[in-house]
Specification:
By secondary structure, the chain is α/β, with parallel strands linked by helices. The structure holds iron/sulfur cluster (SF4). The site of iron/sulfur cluster (SF4) has 14 residues, from helix 1 and helix 7.
Amino acid sequence: MKAGEYKSTCSYCGVGCGIIVSKMPDGKVTVRGDREHPVNQGKLCSKGLNLHYVVNNQDDRLLVPQMRLGKGHPLKTVEWPEAIARVATVFSSLIQKFGPDSVAFYVSGQCLTEEYYVASKLAKGFWGTNNIDTNSRLCMSSAVVGYKMQLGEDAVPASYEDIDLADCFFITGANPAWCHPILFRRIEARKNANPDVKIVVADPRRTQSCELADLHLQLKPGTDVYLNNAIARVLLENGYADWDFIRHHTNGIEEMQAEVMATSVEEAAEICGLEADDIRLAAKYIGEAKGFISMWAMGLNQSVIGVKKNLSLINLSLITGKIGKPGNGPFSLTGQPNAMGGREVGGMCNLLPAHRNLDNEKHRREVAEFWNVAEVPAKPGYSATEMIDALESGQLKAVWVICTNPMVSLPNSHKVERALKNAKFVVVQDISKNSDTVPFADVVFPAAGWLEKEGTMTNSERRITYLSQVVKAPGEALPDFEIMCRVARKMGYSGFNFKNAQEVFDEYKQLTLGTNISIGELSYNHLREKGSVQWPFRNGRSTARLFEDKKFYTPTQKANLFAVEPTNDSEKPSDDYPFILTTGRIRDQWHTMTRTGKVKRLQQHIDKPFLEIHPTDAEKLGIENDDVVTIKNRMGEVNAAAKVSETVRPGVVFLPMHWGKVLAGNHARTNNLTFDRVDPKSKEPDFKYSTVQIEKYAKP
Ligand code: SF4
C-alpha cells in the first residue's frame, strides 16, 4: 500500500468486502476494492463503490450533542458533559425507582464489535438488566436458533472458498444478486467455470438471482417447510441419504423421517403451488452433488415460523452428510456487516459474551466474575418487538438507540411511534440527522461513522477484519464506545476506563478463551499486518471450515435432525385483505437509506417506492403501470406507484422496505403495514407475510 492508503471493510452487507481507502490532501477519501482481500479480490458492488460519497458529504451529520429541557421542548445544543450527565442521571434514577429492567439499549448490526461489547457489559453487568437487543433480531435470529438447535452453536460451518468447490447451490429466501452481490458473482464465476453446476432458487418472486438458476421454485409465501420436507423425502426415498453419516453423527432420524413421509411430494407441491417434478428435480440436483451449499437470508428468517424453516433446511445438509467437507454446508447470508460480531460479544437480550448462554448458571457466573460484578441477571431481556410493547405499556421507561432507525425498520410503525412517544426518556446516538427516529429523542449523541473510528467486524463466514480510522469525525462526534464509557463512568461504574478500541478488544478476547469461538491469541497488530482471520483462531491458525472432524458442538457431539411440522401461523388472506404482502431490499439502497439515500448515483437505479403486482391482479383492480395505489390493512396505509410485473405470483405483492417519512412522507413507510407477530423461539418478526387490500389512490 502507498502512503495515505488504509485498509478497511465495507460497512454495508455481511459479505464483508475488503476496501482500500485513499486519503487526499484535502481530507476527502476515495475507495477501491482490496485485491488482496480473500472475500472480494478487488471487486465491489454499487453500494461499496460509492461509499466515499457518504464519508465526503457531511451535510446530513449530527455534529453536536443536543437535548430537550422537557417533552415538547425543541432540541438545543449542549456541551458533552451536560448531555452525558443528563443521560447518566436519568438512567440512574429510573433504575433506582423502577428497577434495572426499566431501561434498555437498542443497538445495531452496524456497530463495531468493541461497541457492542461495551453496551453488553454496561447493561448486563452494571445496570443489571438483559435489556439489550439489536436490529439483528430482525435479520438472523431464526438462523441462530436453527444452528444452535442442530449444530450446538451459532456457527456458520462453511466459507466463501467453499463456493468455488460446490456443485449445487440451493438459494432459498434470498436474492444475493442484489443483496450480497459480490458473493453472488462468486457463484456466477463457479457456474461459468463449470456449466454442470446446478443452481436452484426458491422464492415467491422471480428476482435477479433467478436469472442464473437452472430451476426457479416460485413457491407460495410461507410454504417453505413443505418444500424442504418434500425435498428431504425424495432424498431419503431415492438413495441420496448418507446413512453412515446419519447413524454415526446425527440424532433424531426416525422422527424426522416419519414427519417428511407424512406428506406426499404431490400434496406438498399442491400446497406450495409448484410442480411435483420440479421438487424431485431439485432433490436430484442436491442428492447428486458432491458439494452442496444451501444459502438463505431474510426470506426464511423473517417469519413466524423462521426457526422451523431453518431446521427443515439444515436437515437437508445433515441427511446427505454434506457438511464439514470442502464445497459443502448450510450457509446463512448475514444481512448486516457485523451482526455476527454483535452476537459474539453477547449483544442480544438472550446471549452472553463468547456465545455463552444466559440460561446457563455457570456461564453467568463466569461473566460476572470476569466483569467483577455480583451477578449477571438470569431473566432474559426484552427482544426488539417486546421492547416496543413494553415502551407502549409503560413497563419500559427509557431506551438508548444506537446506530439504527427503528421508526422505519421495525414492524408496525404506528405502534413504534406510539411507543417512542410514550417513553419517559429516549436517547438517540447516530451519525445522521436524517433519521425518522431522531425527532423522538430527549438527548441526541453525535457518533463517529465509518472510517472515523477503529475497530473490528465479523462477516458471514466468521471472518474478523480490522477497520482503520482514516479521517477525523466531524464536529464533536465521538466513537460509540467512548460515549457509552463516559456515561458509564458518570454513573459511577468501574471497568470502563478504556483508552481506545484496542483495549476493549483485548478485554473481550480474554472471555473467548476455552470457548468454541476462541480468539485469545488474536491482536490488532495481527489483523493490521497479516489481515483478517476466521474464528476460532488457535495456534496462529484461522479456521475456514467447521465440523471437519464430524464432531458437533452438542452434548452428544452429534448433530440434531428435527421433525418439522409444516404448519404456519401467519394471518391468512381474507375477503377484506386478500393479498399477501412480502417486503425486501432493492439493489442500490441500504436499510433506511440514511447513508445510501444521500448518494445521487444510487438513486438512479430506483428512485421511489413501488408496489410489484401481478398483471392478472392489476387488471382485476383496474390498475396500470405507474398508477399510484394505496395498500392498506388494519394497521395502516402506504401509497406507492404500481409496477405491474410477472416477477410476483398472482395474489402476492411486494414493497421495498427502505423509504421512511423523512425521505418520502408518512405514507411511504412499508412497515406501516407489517405485522409485529414473531417466531416464538427466535422472536424474529414476520416481515415476509402480511395481508393487505389494494386500491387505486384517491386524493383525500
Ligand atoms: Fe459492500 Fe456487500 Fe457490496 Fe461487498 S457486496 S461491496 S460488503 S455491500
